[in-house]
């Protein structure tokens, strides 16, 4: 349980040049022969014993250069293999080992999912397959032979290109050989064997290389792969056009499995996916599912260059591949769909997941300086904030120089394992911009506060923007250095138009981009005829918390006129958030969410919703109120989740009544969305219509609940079905029960859709939701062993039901702790992720805070895995 430190990095003592693996696949005892061509690393200091990583691997035999070693010449333990005396030049280490895939419930290494063999090696799973230098800076080429029973495993896949296959004479077995010419670290190794259906297509790269594309899924699911395949081809084309990156093997295989700890894995040439992120048919997947599939298929594909061809030197550099690849997938989706809406969704995601992490006990830099268990660092900070850092770099360098910088990065480091410093050096060298201060963004945790005020001087006709950056203390980092912050702004004149921005020194800011570099800084704009309305942090140009002296009237003005679509949406959110926090602070006070301000908000929303030149999806986003978690975040302390819900429900009611006719009009007008298509316009119409329905039902009129029930009954696609079910779910009404029962009957044998049924109930805010969720643990269709089902029920409850999880009597906390303890025994990675839901416990009102603390202390006294120990101990602080 000792932390590892970035500052302790040392190059490996040995290198592995080629890896020859031979798998004899059997569910309960798989034998692996590994021939590793090794040599001492010239960069390492003195000759040292050879120490290989291993976890739960049984060593059967070991030889060096073909000569078997005697038991006193090595030592093999649960955690590794040491050979004190190896040749001083190149040598071949031959290992014969065994593992038990069937018993592997941690889902790391070689395991079984639905009768198939599959692997998950990132970050440290390869050591569960054989002894190895299981670290990302050891790059080797692989040749893999898989041999298995032919009838139950007709499909045999590994990385790279297929080179040979055949039957094993005199047996029921067959084999396949795969070669991957690209050197890779062990975490990118993958193997799959099983009885799977195949959907094929092809792609011709810009240089004319023909690539075979295959998606492997469970039999019977072939009709749910079209969208994933289309997304893959779009991603391949986009990466060529936008970043000049071309695919580099003859085949690209995707395998969908139903037991997977995360979303997907970018293994070279053989991506393995959680089937949730592959399978989609209009009646089984919602628009959000379609968008997620498009994004994750692209993400894993984009890793081929950002992650695979150039990888991380060590796991502290995880953001190097994840932040950059998230940025790339965000840009891809924004290019394919309505860009501003994608930005809104990404920022909402960042604020709801990363901001709480960055302000709580688990706060860590985008590039952490230490960790106990690397599995715990696949976080919103590394991924989403990491992507924001790449976005800021693109903003500050400009698209062209950013592209040049990336080209240089690919050229310089292809085939290497590198660091964040290498990445920034390439961008700096290509653009000529000094990025040394930018490194603070990677090394300093916490969300900076950008406090802004605007002074207008009537006499000189100047407006001065005063900015200070406040860098909050985070665990282990009490003091911080100021950081370069790209701040995109606009100043609106009295008619809502953007005023030209001229700085005192005469510089014209055509793009409104300022760069804040000091703790305190002022920017004076000249030629401003009347006091302007500031629109700050346009496009959310930096991951900061903006605070400013601005009144509700100015926010309303921005809501009606801001030319920046992001800030226009942000203004609507800020307006609603102000009313909601005023209502929920200290003790619930209904006035702000019932009075004058609420009516003005409602009218402004109606105006925007009726603006036909705006995209449907955008208008839909405008109609969505801040979530209960958004309000909690705004309140920052003394959080009472019941007061928050009451405030939000009241505002929903006020708006639902105030603009009832507009909402009903929108709902009716968008009734015919035609045959289902996941494209932006069709999905936007559905989203806007459902947002209107939500407010209509919120009005409290009885016939509106009937409207939701009818919406469910008339649904011809999963989007309409699931969102109407979500709207009905908290209501004590027979129509809710009927819809819930209908959904179950229809989908009880379809695992992915049934997950939605569990999730809707878990998210539904009801006084008895803890008991409902507890009861569902014993449902015959529930299993703690399947991560998707666990996330659907327990994860949705802990992260998507603030009133249920934070129930006053602490029952929600106890429930989560009990579940996590049970899961921790076999899947520590999963358990630790669930425990992340406690991250904001210190901001709760005292009674809830005390319950959460008691639960965490109980957990700390239990027997925990290293993963859960790290989360619990750091959360308690
Ligand atoms: N790079 C992948 C990470 C991942 C993972 C990590 C820990 C345990 C299981 C895992 N499965 C996939 C996912 C990605 O970001 O692309
Ligand atoms: Zn990734």
From TrEMBL:
Residues 446-548 form the Peptidase M1 alanyl aminopeptidase Ig-like fold domain. Residues 20-188 form the Aminopeptidase N-like N-terminal domain. Residues 227-441 form the Peptidase M1 membrane alanine aminopeptidase domain. InterPro entries: Aminopeptidase_N-like_N, Aminopeptidase_N-like_N_sf, PepN_Ig-like_sf, Peptidase_M1, Peptidase_M1_dom, Peptidase_M1_pepN, Peptidase_M1_pepN_C, Peptidase_M1_pepN_C_sf. One of its GO terms (molecular function) is alanyl aminopeptidase activity. Residues 553-876 form the Peptidase M1 alanyl aminopeptidase C-terminal domain. It catalyses: Release of an N-terminal amino acid, Xaa-|-Yaa- from a peptide, amide or arylamide. Xaa is preferably Ala, but may be most amino acids including Pro (slow action). When a terminal hydrophobic residue is followed by a prolyl residue, the two may be released as an intact Xaa-Pro dipeptide. Its cofactor is Zn(2+). Signal peptide: none annotated. Its EC number is 3.4.11.2. Pfam families: DUF3458 (PF11940), DUF3458_C (PF17432), Peptidase_M1 (PF01433), Peptidase_M1_N (PF17900). Keywords: Aminopeptidase, Hydrolase, Metal-binding, Metalloprotease, Protease, Zinc. Belongs to the peptidase M1 family. NCBIfam families: pepN_proteo. This is Aminopeptidase N.
């Amino acid at each position: 349980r000792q932390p590892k430190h970035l500052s302790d990095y040392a190059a490996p003592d040995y290198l592995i040049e080629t890896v020859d693996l031979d798998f004899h696949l059997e569910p309960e005892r798989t034998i692996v022969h590994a021939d590793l061509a090794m040599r001492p690393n010239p960069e390492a200091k003195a000759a040292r014993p050879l120490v290989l990583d291993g976890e739960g691997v049984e060593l059967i035999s070991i030889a060096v250069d073909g000569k078997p070693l005697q038991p006193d010449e090595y030592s093999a333990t649960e955690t590794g293999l040491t050979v004190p005396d190896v040749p001083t030049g190149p040598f071949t280490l031959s290992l014969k080992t065994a593992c038990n895939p069937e018993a592997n419930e941690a889902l790391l290494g070689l395991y079984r999912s639905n009768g198939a063999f599959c692997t998950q090696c990132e970050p440290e799973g390869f050591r569960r397959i054989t002894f190895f230098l299981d670290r990302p800076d050891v790059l080797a080429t692989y040749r893999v032979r898989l041999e298995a029973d032919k009838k139950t495993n007709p499909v045999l896949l590994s990385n790279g290109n297929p080179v040979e296959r055949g039957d094993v004479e005199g047996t029921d077995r067959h084999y396949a050989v795969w070669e991957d010419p690209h050197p890779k670290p062990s975490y990118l190794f993958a193997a799959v064997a099983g009885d799977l259906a195949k959907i094929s297509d092809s792609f011709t790269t810009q240089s004319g290389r023909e690539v075979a594309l295959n998606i492997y899924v469970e039999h019977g699911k072939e009709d749910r792969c079209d969208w994933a395949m289309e997304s893959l081809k779009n991603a391949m084309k986009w990466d060529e056009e936008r970043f000049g990156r071309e695919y580099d093997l003859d085949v690209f295989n995707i395998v969908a499995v139903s037991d997977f700890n995360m979303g997907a894995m970018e293994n070279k040439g053989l991506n393995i996916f959680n089937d949730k992120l592959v399978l989609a048919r209009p009646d089984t997947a919602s628009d959000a599912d379609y968008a997620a599939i498009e994004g994750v298929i692209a993400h894993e594909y984009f890793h081929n260059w950002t992650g695979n061809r150039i990888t991380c030197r060590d796991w502290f550099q995880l953001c190097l591949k994840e932040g950059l690849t998230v940025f790339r997938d965000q840009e891809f989706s924004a290019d394919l769909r309505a860009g501003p809406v994608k930005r809104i969704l990404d920022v909402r995601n960042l604020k709801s997941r990363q901001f709480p992490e960055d302000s709580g006990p688990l706060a860590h830099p985008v590039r952490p300086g230490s960790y106990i268990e690397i599995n715990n660092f696949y976080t919103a900070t590394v991924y989403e904030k990491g992507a924001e850092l790449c976005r800021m770099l693109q903003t500050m360098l400009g698209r062209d120089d950013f592209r040049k910088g990336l080209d240089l990065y690919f050229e310089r480091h292809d085939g290497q394992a590198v660091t964040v410093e290498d990445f920034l050096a390439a961008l700096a060298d290509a653009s000529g911009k000094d990025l040394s201060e930018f490194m603070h963004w990677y090394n300093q945790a916490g969300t900076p506060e950008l406090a802004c005020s605007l002074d207008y001087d009537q006499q000189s006709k100047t407006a001065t923007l005063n900015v200070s950056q406040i860098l909050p203390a985070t665990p282990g980092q009490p003091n911080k250095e100021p950081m370069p912050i790209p701040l995109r702004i606009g100043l609106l004149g009295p008619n809502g138009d953007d005023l030209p921005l001229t700085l005192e020194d005469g510089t014209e800011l055509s793009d409104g981009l300022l760069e804040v570099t000091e703790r305190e800084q002022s920017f004076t704009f000249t030629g401003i005829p009347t006091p302007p309305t500031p629109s700050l942090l346009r496009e959310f140009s930096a991951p900061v918390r903006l605070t400013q002296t601005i009144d509700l009237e100015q926010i309303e003005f921005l809501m009606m006129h801001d030319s920046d679509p992001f800030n226009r949406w942000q203004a609507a959110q800020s307006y609603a958030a102000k009313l909601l926090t005023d209502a929920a602070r200290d003790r619930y006070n209904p006035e702000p969410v019932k009075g004058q301000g609420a009516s003005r908000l409602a009218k402004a929303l109606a105006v925007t919703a009726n603006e036909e030149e705006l995209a449907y999806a955008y208008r839909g986003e405008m109609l969505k109120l801040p979530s209960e978690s958004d309000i909690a975040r705004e309140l920052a302390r003394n959080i009472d989740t019941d007061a928050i819900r009451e405030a939000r429900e009241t505002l929903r009611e006020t708006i639902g009544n105030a603009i009832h006719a507009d909402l009903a009009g929108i709902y009716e007008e968008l009734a015919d969305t035609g045959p289902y298509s996941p494209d932006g316009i069709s999905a936007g119409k559905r989203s806007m219509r459902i947002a209107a329905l939500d407010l209509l039902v919120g009005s409290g009129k009885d016939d509106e609940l009937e409207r939701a029930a009818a919406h469910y009954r008339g649904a011809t696609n999963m989007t309409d079905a699931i969102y109407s079910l979500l709207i009905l779910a908290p209501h004590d009404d027979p129509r809710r029960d009927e819809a819930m029962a209908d959904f179950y009957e229809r989908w009880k044998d379809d695992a992915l859709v049934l997950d939605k049924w569990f999730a809707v109930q878990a998210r539904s805010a009801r006084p008895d939701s803890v008991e409902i969720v507890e009861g569902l643990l014993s449902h015959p269709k529930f299993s703690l062993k399947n991560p998707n089902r666990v996330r659907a029920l327990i994860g949705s409850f802990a992260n998507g039901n603030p009133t249920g999880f934070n129930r006053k009597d602490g029952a929600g906390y106890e429930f989560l702790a009990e579940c996590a303890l049970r899961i921790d025994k076999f899947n520590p990675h999963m358990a630790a992720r669930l425990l992340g839901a406690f991250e904001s416990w210190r901001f709760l009102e005292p009674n809830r805070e005390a319950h959460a603390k008691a639960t965490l202390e109980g957990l700390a006294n239990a027997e925990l895995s290293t993963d859960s120990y790290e989360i619990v101990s750091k959360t308690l602080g």
